[in-house]
Write a structure and sequence with these properties.
It comes from Pseudoxanthomonas sacheonensis. This is Catechol 2,3-dioxygenase-like lactoylglutathione lyase family enzyme. It holds the Pfam family Glyoxalase. By secondary structure, this protein is of the alpha+beta class. It has a single domain, classed as 2,3-Dihydroxybiphenyl 1,2-Dioxygenase, domain 1 (Roll). It is built from 3 helices and 9 strands, in the order βαβαβββαββββ. It has helices at about 10-25, 35-40, 80-90; strands at about 5-10, 30-35, 45-50, 55-60, 70-75, 95, 100, 110-115, 120-125. Strands 5, 6, 7, 8 and 9 form a 5-stranded mixed beta sheet that branches. A 4-stranded mixed beta sheet has the order 1-4-3-2. A hairpin with a 2-residue loop joins strand 3 (about 45-50) and strand 4 (about 55-60). Helix 1 (about 10-25) packs antiparallel against helix 3 (about 80-90). It starts with a strand and ends with a strand.
């Protein structure tokens, strides 16, 4: 239902590297980068996604970083959830929920949570059994 979403980041280059490392684990890549000249407002933007469609964006934003943003990215295996969490930690994120079942959502909900360096809570989730 969601076409795309975006979040502001405090350090564009650092965050771009973080998300490139994180998304490699779930098959998403940097697909598009928009320069300050193209945005017209002096900001940078990077779009990540799959199959040629950027659906998650980060952008430098002079207005500041929003607190407590949560975004979950679906993947097709529990192993990819595990890899997402490990890559997030290796890239400088903080653990916000180790990989595991969350049966209070539904019996097969397997997720992991990372807090990025701006405090955004990013999650990988697999809804499939084993």
């Amino acid at each position: 239902m969601i076409d795309h979403t975006g979040i502001p980041v405090s350090d564009y280059a650092r965050s771009k590297t973080f998300y490139e490392q994180l998304f490699a684990t779930i098959g998403a890549t940097l697909l598009m980068e928009v320069t300050p000249e193209q945005t017209g407002d002096g900001t940078w933007a990077a779009g990540f996604g799959r199959d040629g469609k950027p659906s998650f964006w980060i952008g430098s934003d002079a207005r500041g970083v929003a607190a407590h943003t949560h975004i979950a990215f679906v993947t097709d295996s529990r192993a990819k959830v595990d890899a997402f969490h490990a890559a997030g930690l290796a890239a400088g994120g903080r653990d916000n929920g180790a990989p595991g079942l969350r049966p209070h959502y539904h019996p097969n909900y397997y997720g992991a949570f990372i807090t990025d360096r701006d405090g955004h809570n990013v999650e990988a989730v697999c809804h499939l059994p084993e």
